[in-house]
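HUMAN:
Just now I want nothing more than another pair of eyes on a protein record. I would be glad if you read both lines and explained how they fit together. I have put the entry right below:
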Amino acid sequence: MFFFLTEENQRPKANAGGDQSVSLPLKWIILNGSASTDDLGIQSWLWTREPESLAAGAIIANSDRTSTLMVINTVFDVSNIIFLLGLQFLADEFGSG
């Protein structure tokens, strides 16, 4: 007789850290999402700017596709600047994820 114990796949958790305060003029900003987790492993990262957020800058070395977003030459016109962190995680052998 064989018994198989399986655990239910957990949803990934994107964690970009807490809110940050900046003082203008600011030439750069770094956001760290390395505290994000997934029980099957994180396959890829994607940082995006919230469309309503009036911010501009140049992303360094494709860092928008890594756990740490680095932006230089930043220009912010409002007090609330929002970046979103999205994760793609590995699917299990049955294709669920």
Observations:
- DSSP finds no helices and five strands in the chain.
- The two ends are 29 Å apart (CA to CA).
